[in-house]
Each structure stands twice: as structure tokens, then as C-alpha cells.
Amino acid sequence: MNALGDSRLEGGLAILDPDHTALLKALDETFTRWALDVGAREICPPPLYAVADLKKFDVYVNFPHLSLVAGPLQVTRNLGPDDGRFRPDQLASVNLGLPTATCFGAYLFFEGRQVSTATLVTLVNRCFRGEDHFDGLRRLLSFQMREIVALGSYVHTQYILTYFSGKIEKFCHALSLKFVKEAATDPFFERGGARALLQGMQAVKHEFQVDDLAIASVNTHRNFFGERCRITTDSDGGLAFTSCVAFGLERWVSVLTNRYGSAERALEEVRRAASQLPPA
Amino acid sequence: MNALGDSRLEGGLAILDPDHTALLKALDETFTRWALDVGAREICPPPLYAVADLKKFDVYVNFPHLSLVAGPLQVTRNLGPDDGRFRPDQLASVNLGLPTATCFGAYLFFEGRQVSTATLVTLVNRCFRGEDHFDGLRRLLSFQMREIVALGSYVHTQYILTYFSGKIEKFCHALSLKFVKEAATDPFFERGGARALLQGMQAVKHEFQVDDLAIASVNTHRNFFGERCRITTDSDGGLAFTSCVAFGLERWVSVLTNRYGSAERALEEVRRAASQLPPA
After folding, report:
1. Residues ≥6 apart with Cβ < 8 Å to B76
2. Nearest to B86 among A22, A69, A75 (CB)
3. Residue A236: how many CB atoms within 10 A of its CB?
4. Does A197 touch chain B (CB under 8 A)?
5. Residue A278 above 90 pLDDT?
6. N or C: which end of chain B has fewer CB within 10 A?
7. What is the Cα–Cα distance from A210 to A249, expressed in whole angstroms?
8. Under a CB-based contact definition with an 8 Å cutoff, are residues B196 and B204 in contact?
9. Do residue B64 and residue A52 have CB atoms under 8 angstroms apart?
10. What's chain A's average pLDDT?
11. Is the dihedral of CA B138, B128, A26, B148 positive or negative?
């Protein structure tokens, strides 16, 4: 048995064995509980969107190299795949996109709506990134990302990041996980003069890294998503600000399994650490 | 507010609001608990496979009209989507397939392995079907299917179907859901003389239908999947038999919300009914 036990891992796609599944679920329940404890409601997004919806977030400008797209087959001329792949001309249409991040579902959920200035939701999704190489559970083609998304006033979005940064730090300490918190570049803000200037004034993304791997991040989007999805606040009708806290679940599984030698042992430690953290 | 509350539903893709999300999660936890209570272990599959893996199950022979396929973009010539879709020749490769059912992950998990004669796993996945029309939560492009999959001896696979059929019937009674149990055709066995003959001798699929909608099914595959994935049993090294019990989670949400007028009320009823059922 390797470090992944009986999990099947091929081409960046993992089928997790029972011990790794239990660990992933316990982590997800822990992060979800943190969010619910401070009043978040959970919503449930699909792992597939209309290309036109994802385009609103500039994903095909900023992440064309990571983006996977999908569509139905042309049945009339379908002759099956050849050597493990279909020819592009066997597709009837390519109008669907697989998301690179979970939080898109939150902005689309609130699209065209007015929200309170202190809105908080949590959601988990399957995400997809066509990386140029894959590496165990550290870098997968398809993985799970839990997010906690704040919408409303700028102060609220910043408070949420501060609060959950504190939770992540305490949880890492309780798990004896050595981490560094690093400012990172957010590809959403890499292009365009105004946004680049904004980033120069204030880091918009911080990553929590363990073993050189980002296992969580906190992200400020100003009103980028509020604008793209026409989300307004009920205070003055202005565009909502947003921020998000993201947890790469398989990455947590990976670093904890390394830290504790097995997923089973890591699960015990997660349960112990989660119960030690003070409630909100 | 419509019957789906604030859920966003477009093009067969749903973002469930908090009440519908809570109901779906409670249902999934109930079915999972039933499986764990009789010794199942949970595994976690990806919502995307190599086309070559799905081809093993004849999906591109039996379900080409329902199948969605995916791949990365050709970045060098990427000019973004036009009118909500990419041209097929903008794809670099089409080597990935989105699954139409959850249980494929179980057979791939055990591919090439030997299992005990009474193996039981449970798993949930996002599934995808390119239907010719969509209808609320009754018929979605992307939905969640919980499955309980038995592998091993033929007797074991049949016992599991009988056992969970009983659980489903009791649960429906406790929820005051009127259902019919109908023999149905299984597309895996529609083609080919031997399989058609087999189906003539014995119904291989039964559906539990509420409001003319199949919300659960029990399925016998003989050793079709055992053969395709070279899964053998530890008794005599012969090919494993398999069977599965499938729950369409959004469909349960749909019929229960209709039955009780709101997802919130339906959630209370699910909790009550689940606690009334005798343990295994």
C-alpha cells in the first residue's frame, strides 16, 4: 500500500479510498461548521455552467490554459472514440464550461439580486484545472474546494477574511501543521491598469502554505463580481463587495496524511483539533 | 417566490438555495447512513473520467445521445467563445467524459482487484445527462446520484437489492409518498443477443416511481462490470457479480417539496421519517 492506500489515481483523477474519503469529509464538515456557526447559509452549485456564465468572470481571458469545456456528441455521425479521444468535429456544440473555482456559483446565485450588507454563504464544488502536470492529491485535474463567500459592505468582506484567517491559523496550530501566510497574485487582477494599480495598493490574495502547497486562501475582490453579476446591497443599492475563503480539500488530505503517516491517524487528529477550537 | 424559492435554475443547471440544499444533504445523509449501518465503506469518485475508462462500460454505444465529453482549449489559437460557445476546432483534445451515473466510479475503483464475496461501498457523484429537454429538479443536465454498490457473489448482490428495496419502501411509507415499483429496461442490456435473452428471463432494473418520476432504482448487472473491470472474488477467483441501488437526490427533493409544500417542511418530515425507521 502506498501513502494513498487503495485510492485509484490516474491522469490527475482520484477515486479516494474509504480512509481518505472519511478524512476529506471530516475536513469539509469542520470548515462548513465554522461558516454555519457565524450565520452562513449553505447553497449547492453545479459543477458545470454555461460558457456564457463563466465568461462573465473573464475566465477565458485569465485562465484559458486551465479551462476545460464540454458539450454533447453529434449522435448522427458518432462513431465512438478512437484511441481514447473523440475528434473535435464529433462534438455537436461546446457551450458548457467546467469551473476552476467554487465561488463562481455564489455570484451566479445572487446574480441580479439585492443582498444584505452582511451576507455570508458557504458552498463546496468539484473544480477542474487542466494543469500541465499532476502530482498526487497535491495537484489534480478534478478536486473539491469548499468556500465561504462574503457579500455586502467592504467592511463585512474584510472582517470575514480576518475572522477565518484566525480560524485557519488556530486550526493549523492545533494540528501541528507548520504554515506560512504568503501574499499572492490573484489572476483576476493581473490585467488592466486600474486593477493592477489597486493590487499595488493592497494585496488581494493571501495563501496559507504547508509544505510549499497552498491549502487555503483568503481573497478580496472589491466589487469585481458584484459588478459582473449586478449584485447590489440593500443599504444604498450600490454594487456589493465580495471576498472569499477557499479550502482545497484534497490538499488538506495530502498534507495531513503526510504529517500523520496515515489518513486514519490524520482523521483522529482533525476530530481532536476541531473539537479543541473555541466556538465562534 | 416559486416552488424552488431562491434557487437559480437555467438550462438544466441548478444552484440550490439554502432550504433545498439542507433537504438534499439530509436525504443523502439518510441513504448513506443506511449503507454504513450494514457495513458499507464510503469512497469518493471524481465527476470526470478518461473517455477510455467510460468506454469500457459501452456508454458511447448505449448512451451517445446523453453523453457529455470535455477537453482543454487550444490556447495558442484561443480567441474566446463566440455567442456563448466555442467552435469545436478551438479544443486541443476531447479525451475526458462526464459520467451519466455514479456507480462507474466503484467499478473503476476495484478495477483489476480481488474483492470479498460480500463487498459493499457507497458513493455520491455529480452526474450529467444531455437530455433533449429539462424540467425543474425532475430532469437536470447535472444532478447528484447517491449509490450503494454491491460486489462479490451473486447471492450477496441480490440480498443487498432486497434489503434496500425494503428500506426504500418503509421510508416512502413513513413519508406518506405514494410510489409504484416498476420493472424497467436497463440500457446496458438492450443490445446483444445474450444480454437481451438474460433480461427476458429476469428483470434487471426496478424503479421506484413517485408522481411518474423514478426517484430510486435497484439494478442487477450479473458480471458485466466485473468482466469489464477484471474484478474477481476471493472465493474462487471468478468474476465478481455486481448490483447497485441508486437515489436521484434532486428528484427526491422535488417530489418531497411538492408533497409538503416547502423544502423546510419536507426537511422536518425527512428527519422524522429517518428516525422512525428501525436500524439495520
Report:
1. none
2. A69
3. 9
4. no
5. no
6. N
7. 13
8. no
9. no
10. 92
11. positive
Q: What chain B residue is nearest to A121 in terms of C-alpha separation?
A: B18
Q: Is A76 exposed, middle or buried (0-12, 13-18, 19+ CB in 10 A)?
A: exposed
Which residues from B are below 8 Å from A113, CB to CB? 6
Q: Which of A96, A113, A230 to mutate to test the interface with B (most CBs of B within 10 A)?
A: A96
Tell me the pLDDT tens digit for each residue of B185-229: 766 655 554 555 555 545 689 999 999 999 999 999 999 999 999
Q: What does DSSP assign to residue B238?
A: P
Residue B96 DSSP symbol: E
| Residue type at position A88 | P
Cβ-based contacts of A93 with chain B (< 8 Å): 85
Alpha carbons B248 and B254: distance in angstroms, whole number: 10
The amino acid sitting at B103 is C
B141 contacts in A (CB within 8 Å)?
A: 46, 48
Distance CA(B31)–CA(B280), nearest Å, equals 12
Query: Which of A86, A111, A139 is best to mutate for the B interface (most B CBs within 10 A)?
Result: A86
A83 Rama class: left (phi>0) / alpha (psi -120 to 50) / beta: left
Secondary structure (DSSP) of chain A? -BTTBT-EEETTEEEB-HHHHHHHHHHHHHHHHHHHHTT-EE-B--S-EEHHHHHTTTHHHH-TTT-EEEEEB-GGG----BTTBB-GGGBS-B-EEE-SSSTHHHHHHTTT-EE-TEEEEEEEEEEE---SS-BTTTB-SEEEEEEEEEEE-HHHHHHHHHHHHHHHHHHHHHTT---EEEEE--GGGSSSHHHHHHHHHS--EEEEEETTEEEEEEEE-TTHHHHHTT-EETTTSPBPEEEEEEEEHHHHHHHHHHHHSSHHHHHHHHHHHHHHSPP-
pTM of the model: 0.95
Residue type, A101: A
Range scoring the smallest mean pLDDT among A66-75, A201-210, B244-253, B255-264: A201-210
Amino acid at A118: A
Q: Which domains does chain B have, with CATH numbers?
A: 8-46+99-276 (3.30.930.10), 48-98 (no CATH)
Least CB-CB distance to B78: which of A64, A91, A93? A64
CA B225 to chain centre: 15
Q: How confident is the model at residue A1 (pLDDT cuts 50, 70, 90)?
A: very low
**Using CB atoms, which residue from A48, A80, A87 is nearest to B141?**
A48
Mutate to test the interface with A, among B44, B79, B249 (most CBs of A within 10 A): B44
Query: Is the pLDDT confidence value at B153 over 70?
Result: yes
Task: Judge contact between A30 and B59, C-beta under 8 A.
Answer: no
Q: Which helix (H) or strand (E) holds B267?
A: helix B263-276
Q: Please state the rounded mean pLDDT for residues B247-266.
A: 98
Q: What is the mean pLDDT of residues B139-143?
A: 98
Which of A50, A94, A140 is facing B11, going by the closest CB pair? A50
